[in-house]
Design a protein that fits this description.
single chain, alpha+beta, 5-stranded antiparallel beta sheet
């Protein structure tokens, strides 16, 4: 992975920044944590997760998944969809041995990959994502993604997943430069989580008489 401006940022720092930015954009704490983990996972794969997350946050609130999953026309949030798939990874609803699963219209498909990787590990089978542009396979038993080269990745698409077949021969990790402009923009979202101090909050700060060591 080639990173210039990001060389001073650890994986944990990227995760925490993206978490705060997602929370500032209105995601719940649980989903914001998932967004941070997803962005950092993509960075570990040579994919600019923070920039992709930034594009997602700029879209504003998006629809959540419907159960059972189906090809709905509303544009869905990949974080909410991915969390839902992982929550049901060990249940019959996500049994890919029998059928493909239609996911519907999803924004920023690459943000779904960390969740599908987790799901593949849980099922001990590779998972193939269809509709994002190139052929994308999440491999079982390892945090790795293979993306066929030469086709642009869609910013939004109707997606479906199936049990993975053979992986493409060409690995597809992309080298990128993590832009300071992206970091600054995420920080603007993150700043929304700060609340101006009030007399009440200052009065409640610090230890109280009821604190027990």
């Amino acid at each position: 992975m080639t990173v210039s401006a990001s060389s001073s940022f650890s994986s944990n720092e990227i995760e925490q920044l993206c978490l705060k930015a997602a929370r500032g954009a209105g995601l719940s704490w649980g989903l914001a944590e998932e967004a941070g983990v997803a962005a950092a996972w993509l960075v570990s794969q040579g994919i600019d997760g923070p920039e992709i997350l930034l594009h997602l946050l700029r879209l504003g609130p998006l629809a959540g998944p419907t159960l059972p999953w189906r090809a709905q026309s509303l544009l869905q949030c990949p974080i909410r969809l991915g969390a839902s798939l992982c929550d049901h990874a060990d249940l019959p609803q996500t049994d890919l041995a029998m059928r493909e699963i239609e996911l519907g219209f999803v924004a920023m498909p690459l943000l779904l990959l960390p969740f599908l990787s987790r799901m593949a590990g849980s099922k001990h089978n590779s998972i193939e994502l269809h509709g994002a542009g190139p052929r994308i396979i999440l491999q079982s038993g390892e945090s790795a993604v293979t993306i066929a080269q030469g086709t642009p990745i869609a910013s939004q698409a109707h997606l479906r997943i199936s049990r993975g077949a053979e992986q493409p021969k060409k690995a597809a990790l992309r080298h990128f430069t993590l832009s300071l402009a992206t970091i600054d923009a995420l920080n603007i979202f993150a700043m929304r989580t700060t609340v101006p101090a009030s007399e009440a909050s200052r009065a409640g700060a610090g230890a109280s008489d009821r604190d027990i060591d």
